[in-house]
Design goal:
The complex is a heterodimer of chains A (237) and B (32). Chain A has 237 residues and is α/β, with parallel strands linked by helices. Chain A is built from six helices and five strands; from the N terminus they run βαβαβαββααα. The longest helix of chain A has 22 residues. Classes of the chains: A alpha/beta (237), B mainly alpha (32).
Chain lengths: 237, 32
């Protein structure tokens, strides 16, 4: 078997009204992965690694940026995405002071919402699993000590480490899939192949990097993986 | 589907075709 068939990106508006707090989760709950990361240009290489790893490992990346409807408060979008996603990746590495000397609380807030759903939600919601990413090993203890013992994973701002962390989390949470998934080295090599072609795809599609939306990236990753499946290594089913 | 998504799918297909043609040309010249 090759890599899991990638799930098409979420490009359509959800059928379920995300404004209804008690509505059931979406139909693809077991395959959807909520991504909670900082929205800034400096993060783009890590965002690319995150979306690539999630898609290549058979999950579908979901993010508040996929829905540009300004009529919905962002909180409602996030709540709906968290409800619809069994999996969540929360990158706290940019919980740092802004220009006005206040910390960026969005990422820890959304992690708290995710953990709250997993703690107090329905049986289905209690199946949630999340990966918490941080920059260095111990820094988070200074700003979110309640996470002590939760083993956040440092990525050191390195896309390769991001890919490795996501892969490790997925196979730890879904051990039955381990033999069918690429190992960390294969996945990192696969990611570098995508990176080498990503600029070409953008150029041919007439997209500037600065204009690329989250959905454009998710579509690029999906289309590239679909067209360039990773070949099976010996011993991998 | 939006214009940019169509363009992305087309770009990926075009690149795959170009790469396949280039690889076939390399194989052919290696045999010569």
């Amino acid at each position: 078997m090759r890599t899991p068939s990638p799930r098409p990106p979420a490009t359509r508006r959800p059928k379920i009204d995300q404004r209804q707090p008690h509505a059931k989760a979406g139909e693809d709950y077991d395959g959807d992965c909520f991504l909670n990361f900082p929205f800034d240009a400096a993060y783009l290489p890590l965002q690319e690694a995150l979306v690539f790893a999630v898609t290549a490992l058979g999950l579908r990346p979901r993010c508040a940026l996929e829905n540009a409807n300004g009529g919905w408060p962002r909180y409602n979008k996030i709540r709906g995405l968290i409800r619809d996603s069994r999996w969540g990746i929360h990158d706290l590495s940019r919980t740092e002071l802004t220009d006005v000397s206040l910390p960026r609380f969005n990422m820890p807030f959304e992690l708290g919402l995710f953990l709250g759903a997993a703690s107090f939600g329905s049986v289905q919601q209690q199946e949630k699993s999340c990966l918490v990413l941080v920059r260095g090993r111990d820094l988070h203890q200074h700003y979110i000590s309640d996470l002590a013992g939760c083993d956040p994973v440092p990525h050191q701002n390195d896309p390769d480490q991001m890919v490795r962390a996501v892969r490790h989390w997925v196979v730890t949470e879904q051990p039955a899939k381990e033999t069918s998934l690429p190992n960390a080295r294969e996945l990192m090599r696969y990611f570098r192949q995508f990176q080498a072609n990503a600029a070409r795809v953008r150029r041919k599609a007439g997209l500037a990097r600065s204009d690329e939306t989250f959905t454009d990236l998710a579509v690029s990753v999906y289309a590239w993986i679909k067209g360039n499946p990773l070949q099976a290594r010996p011993g991998r089913r | 589907m939006s214009v940019s998504r169509k363009a992305i799918y087309k770009a990926v297909r075009d690149i795959a075709r170009e790469d396949a043609i280039a690889e076939a040309a390399r194989d052919a010249s290696a045999k010569d």
